[in-house]
């Protein structure tokens, strides 16, 4: 397809959906940048909420509404809460932590900028004459349910088994190897109530 | 909508996550950056599925599966990080160098094996106490 064939669309006359996508995309990208550069660990998790919520809005603009609500439910609802719990349980400092970035920051920046430049060039060169037709919604709940339970039932069930395995694995990993259930409960509440000495009760329990 | 908008946004988010994975020191921040990279891939899958108008909607199905697998991954990853923190007293990936190969011309028994640990212990009393606890309980 040449540029002339794409004449009904226009580079210089963006539609409202495109402008919305661009603005929300800028917010999402800025939030992602703050997430990977901020010195305050809890703020990183909270900016991650903004980035993931912005992506949910992008899914809505791409007419994939079911995926958008799944994104809000699972990512914003549970993954970020898990991350905040992880930060709390590992006694992450609340204020600014000067050693949040490792020493190879400049090498990482070089790699990331080079990868971004290469990929942006390739992607723009490949798809600059392609347009998404958003007239008919492609991801309504009815469509998603039909395709998920007609064509993708077997992967869906396999995925439920995988989630069960991950649940059991997480429990097995996070319980202590030789402690009893009450010792685990003691260590858990002690760590949550006294963050200054979260690792203390666990080790004392193990020494007994 | 121009296809380049979601594709370029996905590229930028992916490279942001790549920078975070390479540059962050806390293991939980590394996990956050991995989530950013997974979300960039999800955006690509949804955009190309809507563009191609696939009859099976393979892109959106794969996006749902990716989201579920990412939830499982974050659960397992956080439990691993918690176990490392409980045993070592730190979740900084830079300090977990037990299986690192010794670099430099001094050979495998060179001072690089012990120097980072010694320096970390000398500068950080928390790390010293945690290391002592870990040794006492091992």
Describe the protein's architecture and organization.
The complex is a heterodimer of chains A (208) and B (138). Chain A has 208 residues and is an all-alpha fold. Chain A has a domain at 1-103: NADH-ubiquinone/plastoquinone oxidoreductase chain 6, subunit NuoJ (Four Helix Bundle (Hemerythrin (Met), subunit A), Up-down Bundle), CATH 1.20.120. Helix content of chain A is 70%, strand content 0%. Chain A has eight helices and no strands. Chain A is globular. Mean pLDDT of chain A is 82; it is low at 1-6 and 188-208. With 138 residues, chain B is an all-alpha fold. Chain B has one domain: Orthogonal Bundle (Helix Hairpins), CATH 1.10.287. Chain B is 72% helix and 0% strand. Chain B is built from five helices and no strands. Chain B is elongated and about 50 Å long. The termini of chain B are far apart. Mean pLDDT of chain B is 80; it is low at 107-125. Chain A: Residues 183-208 are annotated as: Disordered. Chain A: It is a multi-pass membrane protein. Chain A: Pfam families: Oxidored_q3 (PF00499).
Summarize the structure.
The complex is a heterodimer of chains A (208) and B (138). Chain A is an all-alpha fold and 208 residues long. Chain A has helices at residues 16-37, 41-61, 65-89, 105-127, 141-150, 153-174, 181-193, 199-207.
Strand content of chain A: under 5%
| Inertia-based shape of chain A | globular
Helix content of chain A: 55-70%
Shape of chain B: elongated
Strand content of chain B: under 5%
Instruction: Calculate the mean pLDDT score of chain B and round it.
Output: 80
Order of helices and strands of chain A: HHHHHHHH
Using only CA atoms, what is the Rg of chain B? 21 Å
Strand segment tally of chain A: 0
What summary fits the major beta sheet of chain B?
none
* CATH class categorisation of the domain at 1-103 in chain A: Mainly Alpha
CATH superfamily of the domain at 1-103 in chain A: NADH-ubiquinone/plastoquinone oxidoreductase chain 6, subunit NuoJ
EC number (chain A): 7.1.1.-
Protein name (chain A): NADH-quinone oxidoreductase subunit J
Membrane topology (chain A): Multi-pass membrane protein
Family (chain A): Belongs to the complex I subunit 6 family.
């Amino acid at each position: 397809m040449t540029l002339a064939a794409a004449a009904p669309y226009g580079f210089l006359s963006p539609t409202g959906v495109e402008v919305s996508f661009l603005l929300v995309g800028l917010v999402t990208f800025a939030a992602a940048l703050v997430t990977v550069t901020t010195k305050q660990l809890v703020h990183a998790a909270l900016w991650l909420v903004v980035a993931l919520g912005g992506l949910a809005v992008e899914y809505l603009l791409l007419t994939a509404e079911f995926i958008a609500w799944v994104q809000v439910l699972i990512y914003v609802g549970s993954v970020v809460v898990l991350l905040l719990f992880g930060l709390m349980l590992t006694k992450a400092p609340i204020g600014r932590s000067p050693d949040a970035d490792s020493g190879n920051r400049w090498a990482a920046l070089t790699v990331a900028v080079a990868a971004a430049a290469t990929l942006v060039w390739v992607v723009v060169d490949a798809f600059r004459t392609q347009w998404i037709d958003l007239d008919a919604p492609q991801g309504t709940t009815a469509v998603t349910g039909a395709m998920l339970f007609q064509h993708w039932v077997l992967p869906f069930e396999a995925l439920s088994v995988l989630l069960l395995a991950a649940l059991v694995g997480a429990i097995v990993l996070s319980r202590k190897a030789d402690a009893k259930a009450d010792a685990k409960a003691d260590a858990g509440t002690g760590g949550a109530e006294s963050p200054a000495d979260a690792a203390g009760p666990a080790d004392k329990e193990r020494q007994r | 909508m121009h296809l380049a908008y979601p594709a370029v946004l996905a590229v930028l988010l992916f490279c942001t996550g790549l920078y975070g994975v390479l540059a962050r020191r806390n293991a939980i921040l590394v996990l956050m950056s991995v989530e950013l990279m997974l979300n960039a891939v999800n955006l690509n899958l949804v955009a190309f599925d809507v563009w191609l108008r696939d009859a099976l909607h393979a892109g959106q199905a794969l996006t749902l599966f990716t989201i579920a697998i990412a939830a499982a991954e974050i659960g397992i990853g956080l439990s691993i990080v918690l176990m490392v923190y409980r045993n070592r007293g730190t979740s900084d990936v830079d300090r977990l160098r037990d299986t690192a190969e010794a670099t430099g011309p001094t050979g495998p028994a060179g001072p690089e094996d012990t120097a980072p640990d010694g320096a970390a212990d000398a500068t950080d009393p928390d790390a010293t106490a945690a290391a002592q606890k870990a040794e006492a309980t091992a």
